[in-house]
Amino acid sequence: MARRERCNGCKLYLMVPPEAQSIRCAVCHTITNTNNAAIARWGHVHDSLIGPRRTSPHGSGTHAFPYVYGPHQRPPQPRPPLSPVSVHGRKRALLCGLNYYGKPYGLKGSINDVKCMRYLLVEKLGFPIDSILMLTDEKDPYKIPTKQNIRKGLKWLVYGCQPGDSLVFHFSGHGDRQIDYDNDEVDGFDEALCPLDHDTEGKIIDDEINATIVRPLPRGAMLHAIIDACHSGTILDLPFVCRMNKEGFYIWEDQRKPSFYKGTSGGLAYCFSACDDNQVSADTTAFTKTSTRTGAMTFSFIQAVENEPGLTYGRLLNAMRNAIRDAKAGLRLSGPIATLVNKVFFGSTSQEPQLSSSYTFDIYSKRFVL
């Protein structure tokens, strides 16, 4: 019977096969020599201490202990102790909606965005409801989109990812940009997401997001990020950005720098962003025609996917851009003071959704599939 040993590195208790004489921690990778004399003592530990025995694979299920393999076995990726959401299934999604209640920079449409996205994924695209983790401004401390919880959610999203899996990361909230200090950005800036506690804990920059959910993506797996935030054009730090003009013509812009690898481990990663790195996005009532606010990008994305099943990546990007242009055109004023008022309320730079990818492809022939 497996027993428990404390890791010499991180001090976590590890489940050890009875025949193992040394173990490697799946969390910190420290090798710990085991005490065989303790086998009998730990072999009779009551189920109430380590939980009932399971027939499911080691480390699976909500409350299972991570299984630690011997020196000649490949350790599994550690399961982040995040939430009661099952890691089983071929489709999985992390949805983060931040209204920043009580803050002077609060939003009104972000939680509506993730609720709409969950409906699309479950009702239209076949995502199991228990494979979706939502982080919103709620009372459950494990479901509040703090920096720590978003980090855990990102690790949960890619945990145990296998060929054939489809992953979705949706974020609706504030984005920002800051000086790039490690010289891995073409434009000299890191893009960042703003968690609920970013004022005290700091932002989550694109370098970390890339390292967490892009680089581990194995061959045969697919990741789509839908980021409804300001300055989000390259928020996943993917190697290629699709530069498209208003007529729909495009080229792929290479964002790679020789000393930095920002690709996957063989999987495919795509990111639809609300706007370019130097632009801002907005939530609005223009699409709902009611007092209910939504993010312009999220609404236009969902609308395009629902209205045109089987559309291509190029058609989707164009549909989103056209919807936002049309909505803004309908809101703009005309008359003697139109130029001044429109500049104040809409700014000099329009919001244009962006597409980036881990590789280049023909956006007008490849079908969009989640």
From TrEMBL:
<dbReference type="GO" id="GO:0006508">
    <property type="term" value="P:proteolysis"/>
</dbReference>
<feature type="domain" description="Peptidase C14 caspase">
    <location>
        <begin position="90"/>
        <end position="362"/>
    </location>
</feature>
<dbReference type="InterPro" id="IPR005735">
    <property type="entry name" value="Znf_LSD1"/>
</dbReference>
<dbReference type="GO" id="GO:0005737">
    <property type="term" value="C:cytoplasm"/>
</dbReference>
<dbReference type="GO" id="GO:0004197">
    <property type="term" value="F:cysteine-type endopeptidase activity"/>
</dbReference>
<dbReference type="Pfam" id="PF06943">
    <property type="entry name" value="zf-LSD1"/>
</dbReference>
<dbReference type="InterPro" id="IPR029030">
    <property type="entry name" value="Caspase-like_dom_sf"/>
</dbReference>
<feature type="domain" description="Zinc finger LSD1-type">
    <location>
        <begin position="7"/>
        <end position="31"/>
    </location>
</feature>
<protein>
    <submittedName>
        <fullName>Uncharacterized protein</fullName>
    </submittedName>
</protein>
<dbReference type="InterPro" id="IPR050452">
    <property type="entry name" value="Metacaspase"/>
</dbReference>
<dbReference type="Pfam" id="PF00656">
    <property type="entry name" value="Peptidase_C14"/>
</dbReference>
<dbReference type="InterPro" id="IPR011600">
    <property type="entry name" value="Pept_C14_caspase"/>
</dbReference>
<comment type="similarity">
    <text>Belongs to the peptidase C14B family.</text>
</comment>
